Task: inverse folding
């Protein structure tokens, strides 16, 4: 076993990283930067690879991005829309997509590597979490003709009046292939929020002064 010398915590983190005791990627493929203690997203460029301009290639790109917390849900919506259009056109899995779909898909692929710069703190409040503060859950939901989604935040207010908000998780969905009115989609988004509330409340294990929807 490797014994850490008597060093500050930040220096110990660098030592652990240098000797590669812990992998950069955490459980289930979620990238975790040990030095900054942040979660990220791993996206690889697909330009020039054979078969990327087909329905199979579009589905492969979406499946290759693991985002359990929903950090980049809005970024994935355009590709979901392209995939839906391939179903509407009844394209075969290995059939090249039409020019208009290729244009939309290529624009999305060009920006895909920018996701490697997305980082969200693993800890809700890196400076410490005093139980003297009050906590609230804030849930937001919205919908459009393209998609609908939700996002949840944890709000902390300390005794000295300081307010901090931290991202918890989000979910997004592309709209159905069949036409659905936006008010109905808004109700679907609100339903997702209600279903998210109870497990979030259970996992965070903090006494909430209020929850807002």
Result:
């Amino acid at each position: 076993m490797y014994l850490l010398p008597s060093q500050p915590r930040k220096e110990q983190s660098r030592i652990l990283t240098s000797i590669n005791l812990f992998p950069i990627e955490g459980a289930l493929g979620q990238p975790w930067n040990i030095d900054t203690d942040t979660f990220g997203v791993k996206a690889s460029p697909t330009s020039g690879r054979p078969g990327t301009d087909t329905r199979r290639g579009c589905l492969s790109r979406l499946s290759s991005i693991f985002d359990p917390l929903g950090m980049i849900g809005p970024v994935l919506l355009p590709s979901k829309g392209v995939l839906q259009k391939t179903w509407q056109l009844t394209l075969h899995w290995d059939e090249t997509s039409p020019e208009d779909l290729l244009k939309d898909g290529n624009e999305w692929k060009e920006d895909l590597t920018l996701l490697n710069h997305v980082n969200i703190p693993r800890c809700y409040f890196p400076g410490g979490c005093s139980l003297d503060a009050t906590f609230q859950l804030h849930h937001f939901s919205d919908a459009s003709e393209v998609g609908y989604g939700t996002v949840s935040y944890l709000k902390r207010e300390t005794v000295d009046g300081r307010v901090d908000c931290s991202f918890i998780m989000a979910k997004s969905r592309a709209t159905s292939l069949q036409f659905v009115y936006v008010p109905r989609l808004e109700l679907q988004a609100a339903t997702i929020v209600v279903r998210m509330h109870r497990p979030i409340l259970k996992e965070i294990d903090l006494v909430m002064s209020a929850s807002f929807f």
Remarks:
- Residues 182-204 form the longest helix (23 residues).
- The two ends are 49 Å apart (CA to CA).
- The CA atoms of residues 30 and 66 lie 7 Å apart.
- DSSP finds five helices and seven strands in the chain.
